[in-house]
Amino acid sequence: MELVEATWRIIARRGIEGATMREIATEAGFANGALKPYFPTKDDLLSFAFAHVFNQTNARIGTVSGGLKGLAALRSFCHEILPLDAERLNEARIAIAYWQRALTDPEKAALHDRSMEQWRRELFGRLREARDAGELKGGLEDDDVVGGIMTFVLGAQITATLSPSHHSPEQLRSQLESYISLLAASGAPGAVEGRTK
Amino acid sequence: MELVEATWRIIARRGIEGATMREIATEAGFANGALKPYFPTKDDLLSFAFAHVFNQTNARIGTVSGGLKGLAALRSFCHEILPLDAERLNEARIAIAYWQRALTDPEKAALHDRSMEQWRRELFGRLREARDAGELKGGLEDDDVVGGIMTFVLGAQITATLSPSHHSPEQLRSQLESYISLLAASGAPGAVEGRTK
Q: What is the largest CA-CA distance in chain B?
Protein backbone atom coordinates (compact mmCIF):
# COMPACT_ATOMS: atom_id res chain seq x y z
CA MET A 1 0.00 0.00 0.00
CA GLU A 2 1.36 3.36 -1.12
CA LEU A 3 0.81 5.13 2.20
CA VAL A 4 2.70 2.46 4.08
CA GLU A 5 5.52 2.39 1.55
CA ALA A 6 5.84 6.17 2.00
CA THR A 7 5.76 6.14 5.78
CA TRP A 8 7.45 3.03 7.19
CA ARG A 9 10.99 4.38 6.88
CA ILE A 10 9.96 7.57 8.68
CA ILE A 11 8.65 5.47 11.56
CA ALA A 12 11.80 3.34 11.48
CA ARG A 13 14.01 6.39 11.69
CA ARG A 14 12.10 8.45 14.24
CA GLY A 15 10.72 5.62 16.36
CA ILE A 16 7.03 5.02 16.93
CA GLU A 17 6.94 7.67 19.68
CA GLY A 18 9.14 10.09 17.78
CA ALA A 19 6.53 11.64 15.54
CA THR A 20 2.83 12.43 15.53
CA MET A 21 0.58 11.08 12.76
CA ARG A 22 0.45 14.64 11.46
CA GLU A 23 4.26 14.86 11.25
CA ILE A 24 4.52 11.45 9.60
CA ALA A 25 1.95 12.46 6.98
CA THR A 26 3.65 15.79 6.30
CA GLU A 27 7.12 14.27 6.09
CA ALA A 28 5.84 11.63 3.68
CA GLY A 29 4.40 14.38 1.47
CA PHE A 30 0.73 13.82 2.21
CA ALA A 31 -1.82 16.38 3.31
CA ASN A 32 -2.37 16.57 7.03
CA GLY A 33 -5.12 14.09 7.79
CA ALA A 34 -4.47 11.92 4.72
CA LEU A 35 -3.43 8.93 6.84
CA LYS A 36 -6.33 9.11 9.28
CA PRO A 37 -9.00 7.36 7.17
CA TYR A 38 -6.71 4.37 6.62
CA PHE A 39 -4.79 4.29 9.87
CA PRO A 40 -6.82 5.81 12.70
CA THR A 41 -3.91 5.41 15.12
CA LYS A 42 -0.13 5.04 14.98
CA ASP A 43 -0.61 1.52 16.28
CA ASP A 44 -2.59 0.67 13.13
CA LEU A 45 0.12 2.20 10.99
CA LEU A 46 2.74 0.14 12.85
CA SER A 47 0.86 -3.09 12.15
CA PHE A 48 0.73 -2.26 8.45
CA ALA A 49 4.39 -1.29 8.49
CA PHE A 50 5.26 -4.67 10.04
CA ALA A 51 3.19 -6.57 7.46
CA HIS A 52 4.81 -4.48 4.74
CA VAL A 53 8.39 -5.21 5.76
CA PHE A 54 7.52 -8.88 6.28
CA ASN A 55 6.13 -9.11 2.73
CA GLN A 56 9.06 -7.14 1.35
CA THR A 57 11.48 -9.56 3.04
CA ASN A 58 9.60 -12.52 1.60
CA ALA A 59 9.66 -11.01 -1.89
CA ARG A 60 13.46 -10.72 -1.63
CA ILE A 61 13.71 -14.29 -0.34
CA GLY A 62 11.67 -15.47 -3.32
CA THR A 63 13.98 -13.66 -5.71
CA VAL A 64 17.32 -14.74 -4.28
CA SER A 65 16.44 -18.33 -3.49
CA GLY A 66 14.93 -19.14 -6.89
CA GLY A 67 16.60 -22.34 -8.04
CA LEU A 68 18.36 -22.94 -4.70
CA LYS A 69 17.70 -25.85 -2.39
CA GLY A 70 18.84 -27.22 0.94
CA LEU A 71 21.59 -25.38 2.82
CA ALA A 72 22.18 -22.88 0.00
CA ALA A 73 18.49 -21.88 0.12
CA LEU A 74 18.57 -21.78 3.91
CA ARG A 75 21.55 -19.44 3.77
CA SER A 76 19.80 -17.11 1.28
CA PHE A 77 16.70 -17.11 3.41
CA CYS A 78 18.68 -16.01 6.46
CA HIS A 79 20.58 -13.35 4.52
CA GLU A 80 17.36 -11.57 3.57
CA ILE A 81 16.18 -11.49 7.20
CA LEU A 82 19.51 -10.54 8.76
CA PRO A 83 20.00 -6.73 8.80
CA LEU A 84 22.82 -6.72 6.25
CA ASP A 85 22.15 -3.30 4.66
CA ALA A 86 20.51 0.05 5.43
CA GLU A 87 17.11 -1.08 4.18
CA ARG A 88 17.13 -4.19 6.36
CA LEU A 89 18.35 -2.17 9.35
CA ASN A 90 15.26 -0.01 8.90
CA GLU A 91 13.16 -3.16 8.76
CA ALA A 92 14.77 -4.27 12.03
CA ARG A 93 13.72 -1.02 13.68
CA ILE A 94 10.12 -1.63 12.64
CA ALA A 95 10.28 -5.19 13.97
CA ILE A 96 11.57 -4.05 17.36
CA ALA A 97 8.86 -1.40 17.72
CA TYR A 98 6.28 -3.97 16.68
CA TRP A 99 7.48 -6.63 19.14
CA GLN A 100 7.23 -4.20 21.99
CA ARG A 101 3.61 -3.45 21.16
CA ALA A 102 2.82 -7.12 20.47
CA LEU A 103 3.68 -7.93 24.11
CA THR A 104 0.42 -6.34 25.23
CA ASP A 105 -1.68 -6.39 22.03
CA PRO A 106 -3.17 -9.81 21.15
CA GLU A 107 -3.93 -8.86 17.53
CA LYS A 108 -0.35 -7.82 16.92
CA ALA A 109 0.87 -10.97 18.65
CA ALA A 110 -1.38 -13.10 16.40
CA LEU A 111 -0.06 -11.46 13.21
CA HIS A 112 3.48 -12.03 14.44
CA ASP A 113 2.70 -15.67 15.15
CA ARG A 114 1.26 -16.29 11.68
CA SER A 115 4.25 -14.57 10.07
CA MET A 116 6.80 -16.55 12.05
CA GLU A 117 4.91 -19.80 11.30
CA GLN A 118 5.41 -19.10 7.61
CA TRP A 119 9.18 -18.76 8.15
CA ARG A 120 9.32 -21.88 10.29
CA ARG A 121 7.61 -23.92 7.56
CA GLU A 122 10.10 -22.65 5.03
CA LEU A 123 13.02 -23.57 7.29
CA PHE A 124 11.68 -27.08 7.95
CA GLY A 125 11.35 -27.54 4.17
CA ARG A 126 14.91 -26.40 3.53
CA LEU A 127 16.25 -28.68 6.23
CA ARG A 128 14.40 -31.62 4.67
CA GLU A 129 15.95 -30.82 1.31
CA ALA A 130 19.36 -30.54 2.93
CA ARG A 131 18.97 -33.89 4.67
CA ASP A 132 17.73 -35.57 1.48
CA ALA A 133 20.78 -34.22 -0.36
CA GLY A 134 23.12 -35.57 2.31
CA GLU A 135 24.18 -32.06 3.32
CA LEU A 136 23.46 -32.41 7.06
CA LYS A 137 25.48 -34.24 9.62
CA GLY A 138 23.65 -36.93 11.57
CA GLY A 139 22.04 -36.56 14.96
CA LEU A 140 20.48 -33.12 14.45
CA GLU A 141 16.90 -32.52 15.55
CA ASP A 142 15.02 -30.32 13.09
CA ASP A 143 13.10 -28.67 15.94
CA ASP A 144 16.35 -27.56 17.55
CA VAL A 145 17.81 -26.25 14.31
CA VAL A 146 14.69 -24.40 13.19
CA GLY A 147 14.14 -22.97 16.67
CA GLY A 148 17.79 -21.99 16.91
CA ILE A 149 17.79 -20.26 13.53
CA MET A 150 14.55 -18.40 14.25
CA THR A 151 16.00 -17.20 17.54
CA PHE A 152 19.24 -16.17 15.81
CA VAL A 153 17.63 -14.22 12.94
CA LEU A 154 15.27 -12.41 15.32
CA GLY A 155 18.09 -11.70 17.75
CA ALA A 156 20.11 -10.22 14.90
CA GLN A 157 17.49 -7.47 14.59
CA ILE A 158 18.59 -6.37 18.07
CA THR A 159 22.33 -6.93 17.84
CA ALA A 160 22.66 -5.31 14.39
CA THR A 161 20.81 -2.15 15.42
CA LEU A 162 22.10 -1.80 18.99
CA SER A 163 25.57 -3.43 18.86
CA PRO A 164 26.64 -2.71 15.29
CA SER A 165 30.35 -2.71 16.12
CA HIS A 166 30.14 -6.44 16.91
CA HIS A 167 27.34 -7.34 14.53
CA SER A 168 28.23 -5.64 11.27
CA PRO A 169 26.94 -7.23 8.05
CA GLU A 170 30.28 -9.06 7.67
CA GLN A 171 30.18 -10.30 11.25
CA LEU A 172 26.56 -11.45 11.04
CA ARG A 173 27.32 -13.34 7.82
CA SER A 174 30.34 -14.90 9.47
CA GLN A 175 28.30 -15.94 12.54
CA LEU A 176 25.76 -17.56 10.24
CA GLU A 177 28.45 -19.33 8.19
CA SER A 178 30.03 -20.64 11.36
CA TYR A 179 26.70 -22.18 12.37
CA ILE A 180 25.94 -23.60 8.91
CA SER A 181 29.36 -25.22 8.74
CA LEU A 182 28.67 -26.88 12.12
CA LEU A 183 25.40 -28.32 10.74
CA ALA A 184 26.92 -29.57 7.52
CA ALA A 185 28.21 -33.03 6.80
CA SER A 186 31.88 -32.76 5.84
CA GLY A 187 32.21 -32.07 2.13
CA ALA A 188 28.50 -31.17 1.71
CA PRO A 189 27.95 -29.00 -1.39
CA GLY A 190 26.01 -26.21 0.37
CA ALA A 191 28.31 -26.09 3.39
CA VAL A 192 30.55 -23.37 2.00
CA GLU A 193 29.07 -20.05 0.94
CA GLY A 194 28.87 -19.58 -2.81
CA ARG A 195 29.79 -23.16 -3.63
CA THR A 196 26.40 -23.95 -5.18
CA LYS A 197 25.49 -20.48 -6.46
CA MET B 1 16.68 0.29 44.63
CA GLU B 2 13.45 -0.44 46.44
CA LEU B 3 11.23 1.63 44.14
CA VAL B 4 12.54 -0.19 41.08
CA GLU B 5 12.21 -3.60 42.70
CA ALA B 6 8.58 -2.75 43.46
CA THR B 7 7.72 -1.43 40.02
CA TRP B 8 9.61 -3.31 37.32
CA ARG B 9 7.22 -6.27 37.19
CA ILE B 10 4.27 -3.89 36.87
CA ILE B 11 5.93 -2.32 33.84
CA ALA B 12 6.78 -5.76 32.46
CA ARG B 13 3.19 -6.90 32.75
CA ARG B 14 1.38 -3.76 31.57
CA GLY B 15 3.92 -2.56 29.01
CA ILE B 16 5.63 0.80 29.18
CA GLU B 17 2.61 2.51 27.57
CA GLY B 18 0.08 0.50 29.58
CA ALA B 19 0.17 2.54 32.76
CA THR B 20 0.75 6.08 33.90
CA MET B 21 3.40 6.88 36.50
CA ARG B 22 0.54 7.50 38.91
CA GLU B 23 -0.94 4.05 38.27
CA ILE B 24 2.43 2.36 38.59
CA ALA B 25 3.05 4.10 41.92
CA THR B 26 -0.41 3.20 43.22
CA GLU B 27 -0.20 -0.42 42.11
CA ALA B 28 3.21 -0.74 43.74
CA GLY B 29 1.76 0.57 46.99
CA PHE B 30 3.38 3.99 47.01
CA ALA B 31 1.71 7.33 47.45
CA ASN B 32 0.83 9.11 44.26
CA GLY B 33 3.87 11.21 43.39
CA ALA B 34 6.32 9.02 45.30
CA LEU B 35 8.18 7.98 42.15
CA LYS B 36 8.45 11.45 40.66
CA PRO B 37 11.46 12.72 42.63
CA TYR B 38 13.51 9.67 41.63
CA PHE B 39 12.13 8.99 38.17
CA PRO B 40 10.79 12.18 36.59
CA THR B 41 9.56 10.22 33.55
CA LYS B 42 8.58 6.66 32.65
CA ASP B 43 11.64 6.59 30.42
CA ASP B 44 13.85 7.13 33.48
CA LEU B 45 12.03 4.36 35.30
CA LEU B 46 12.53 2.06 32.29
CA SER B 47 16.28 2.67 32.32
CA PHE B 48 16.46 1.79 36.01
CA ALA B 49 14.29 -1.25 35.41
CA PHE B 50 16.66 -2.43 32.67
CA ALA B 51 19.71 -1.90 34.88
CA HIS B 52 17.92 -3.71 37.69
CA VAL B 53 17.08 -6.82 35.65
CA PHE B 54 20.58 -6.83 34.18
CA ASN B 55 22.11 -6.80 37.67
CA GLN B 56 19.64 -9.39 38.90
CA THR B 57 20.57 -11.67 35.98
CA ASN B 58 24.26 -11.23 36.76
CA ALA B 59 23.68 -12.02 40.42
CA ARG B 60 22.03 -15.31 39.38
CA ILE B 61 24.87 -16.05 36.97
CA GLY B 62 27.38 -15.49 39.77
CA THR B 63 25.49 -17.90 42.01
CA VAL B 64 24.96 -20.74 39.56
CA SER B 65 28.34 -20.63 37.87
CA GLY B 66 30.41 -20.60 41.05
CA GLY B 67 33.00 -23.32 40.63
CA LEU B 68 32.12 -24.00 36.98
CA LYS B 69 34.44 -23.40 34.04
CA GLY B 70 34.48 -23.70 30.28
CA LEU B 71 31.40 -25.10 28.54
CA ALA B 72 29.63 -25.90 31.80
CA ALA B 73 29.98 -22.25 32.89
CA LEU B 74 28.95 -21.05 29.44
CA ARG B 75 25.80 -23.18 29.66
CA SER B 76 24.91 -21.80 33.12
CA PHE B 77 25.51 -18.28 31.89
CA CYS B 78 23.06 -18.76 29.01
CA HIS B 79 20.47 -20.43 31.23
CA GLU B 80 20.23 -17.35 33.43
CA ILE B 81 19.69 -15.06 30.43
CA LEU B 82 17.28 -17.33 28.52
CA PRO B 83 13.66 -16.74 29.63
CA LEU B 84 13.26 -20.13 31.31
CA ASP B 85 10.77 -19.15 34.02
CA ALA B 86 8.14 -16.53 34.83
CA GLU B 87 10.65 -14.15 36.40
CA ARG B 88 12.94 -14.27 33.38
CA LEU B 89 9.97 -13.86 31.02
CA ASN B 90 9.21 -10.63 32.89
CA GLU B 91 12.84 -9.62 32.46
CA ALA B 92 12.50 -10.27 28.72
CA ARG B 93 9.53 -7.93 28.54
CA ILE B 94 11.59 -5.17 30.17
CA ALA B 95 14.45 -5.81 27.72
CA ILE B 96 12.15 -5.56 24.69
CA ALA B 97 10.62 -2.28 25.88
CA TYR B 98 14.10 -0.97 26.61
CA TRP B 99 15.51 -1.95 23.19
CA GLN B 100 12.71 -0.14 21.45
CA ARG B 101 13.51 3.08 23.32
CA ALA B 102 17.26 2.60 22.91
CA LEU B 103 16.84 2.79 19.12
CA THR B 104 16.29 6.54 19.40
CA ASP B 105 17.82 7.36 22.80
CA PRO B 106 21.64 7.52 22.81
CA GLU B 107 21.92 7.26 26.61
CA LYS B 108 19.85 4.10 26.67
CA ALA B 109 21.87 2.72 23.77
CA ALA B 110 25.12 3.46 25.63
CA LEU B 111 23.95 1.65 28.78
CA HIS B 112 22.90 -1.31 26.63
CA ASP B 113 26.31 -1.34 24.97
CA ARG B 114 28.20 -1.35 28.26
CA SER B 115 25.98 -4.12 29.60
CA MET B 116 26.41 -6.31 26.53
CA GLU B 117 30.19 -5.72 26.59
CA GLN B 118 30.27 -7.19 30.07
CA TRP B 119 28.50 -10.32 28.82
CA ARG B 120 30.76 -10.57 25.78
CA ARG B 121 33.85 -10.46 27.99
CA GLU B 122 32.45 -13.23 30.16
CA LEU B 123 31.71 -15.37 27.08
CA PHE B 124 35.21 -14.86 25.65
CA GLY B 125 36.66 -15.93 28.99
CA ARG B 126 34.50 -19.07 29.15
CA LEU B 127 35.47 -20.01 25.59
CA ARG B 128 39.13 -19.61 26.47
CA GLU B 129 38.68 -21.92 29.45
CA ALA B 130 36.83 -24.42 27.26
CA ARG B 131 39.59 -24.37 24.66
CA ASP B 132 42.30 -24.73 27.30
CA ALA B 133 40.46 -27.75 28.70
CA GLY B 134 40.22 -29.35 25.25
CA GLU B 135 36.42 -29.06 25.25
CA LEU B 136 36.10 -27.25 21.89
CA LYS B 137 36.44 -28.71 18.45
CA GLY B 138 39.07 -27.12 16.23
CA GLY B 139 38.49 -24.41 13.64
CA LEU B 140 36.05 -22.28 15.62
CA GLU B 141 36.50 -18.50 15.65
CA ASP B 142 35.74 -17.04 19.08
CA ASP B 143 34.25 -13.93 17.47
CA ASP B 144 31.72 -16.05 15.60
CA VAL B 145 30.79 -18.09 18.64
CA VAL B 146 30.49 -15.14 21.03
CA GLY B 147 28.56 -13.11 18.44
CA GLY B 148 26.33 -16.08 17.69
CA ILE B 149 25.57 -16.75 21.35
CA MET B 150 24.85 -13.07 22.08
CA THR B 151 22.46 -12.98 19.13
CA PHE B 152 20.82 -16.21 20.29
CA VAL B 153 20.31 -15.19 23.93
CA LEU B 154 18.91 -11.79 22.94
CA GLY B 155 16.71 -13.36 20.27
CA ALA B 156 15.34 -15.74 22.88
CA GLN B 157 13.83 -12.75 24.70
CA ILE B 158 11.62 -12.30 21.62
CA THR B 159 10.87 -15.90 20.76
CA ALA B 160 10.10 -16.92 24.36
CA THR B 161 7.65 -14.07 24.92
CA LEU B 162 6.03 -13.96 21.47
CA SER B 163 6.31 -17.56 20.22
CA PRO B 164 6.13 -19.53 23.47
CA SER B 165 4.64 -22.63 21.81
CA HIS B 166 7.90 -23.15 19.91
CA HIS B 167 10.26 -21.64 22.47
CA SER B 168 9.17 -23.07 25.79
CA PRO B 169 11.83 -23.40 28.51
CA GLU B 170 12.41 -27.03 27.45
CA GLN B 171 12.73 -26.08 23.79
CA LEU B 172 15.10 -23.18 24.48
CA ARG B 173 17.31 -25.45 26.60
CA SER B 174 17.27 -28.04 23.86
CA GLN B 175 18.19 -25.44 21.21
CA LEU B 176 21.10 -24.34 23.37
CA GLU B 177 22.25 -27.93 24.02
CA SER B 178 22.12 -28.65 20.30
CA TYR B 179 24.45 -25.70 19.66
CA ILE B 180 26.82 -26.54 22.53
CA SER B 181 27.12 -30.12 21.33
CA LEU B 182 28.07 -28.81 17.85
CA LEU B 183 30.84 -26.69 19.43
CA ALA B 184 32.20 -29.47 21.58
CA ALA B 185 35.05 -31.77 20.78
CA SER B 186 33.77 -35.35 20.91
CA GLY B 187 33.93 -36.66 24.43
CA ALA B 188 34.49 -33.22 25.99
CA PRO B 189 33.48 -33.18 29.67
CA GLY B 190 31.20 -30.11 29.44
CA ALA B 191 29.55 -31.17 26.18
CA VAL B 192 26.64 -32.93 27.83
CA GLU B 193 24.40 -31.08 30.27
CA GLY B 194 24.95 -31.99 33.86
CA ARG B 195 28.08 -34.04 33.21
CA THR B 196 30.36 -31.70 35.15
CA LYS B 197 27.87 -30.38 37.68
A: 60
The H or E element containing residue A33 is: none
In a domain, B30, yes or no: no
What CATH number has the domain bearing residue A56? Answer: 1.10.357.10
The predicted complex's ipTM stands at 0.95
Determine the Cα–Cα distance for residues A34 and A31; give it in Å rounded to an integer.
5
**Residue in A97, A158, A166 closest to B147 by CB:** A166
Rounded (10°) CA dihedral B147, A182, A130, A168: 20
B112 touches chain A (CB under 8 A): yes
**How confident is the model at residue B19, as a pLDDT?**
86
Closest residue on chain B to A113 (Cα): B163
Cα gap B88→B94, rounded to integer Å: 10
Q: Is B104 on the interface with A (CB under 8 A)?
A: yes
Q: Which amino acid is at A129?
A: E
- Its domain, for residue B125, covers 41-183
A177-197 pLDDT tens trace: 999 999 999 877 777 786 544
Asked if residue B60 lies in contact with residue B116, where contact means CB atoms within 8 angstroms, the answer is: no
How many structural domains compose chain A?
A: 1
Beta bridge partner(s), residue B136: B184
How many C-beta neighbours within 10 Å does residue B14 have?
Answer: 16
pTM: 0.95
Q: Any chain B CB within 8 A of the CB of A143?
A: yes
pLDDT digits (tens, 9 = 90+) for B57-69: 999 999 999 999 9
Residues of A in contact with B182 (CB under 8 A): 179, 182-183
* Cross-chain residue pair B99–A158, CB shorter than 8 Å: yes
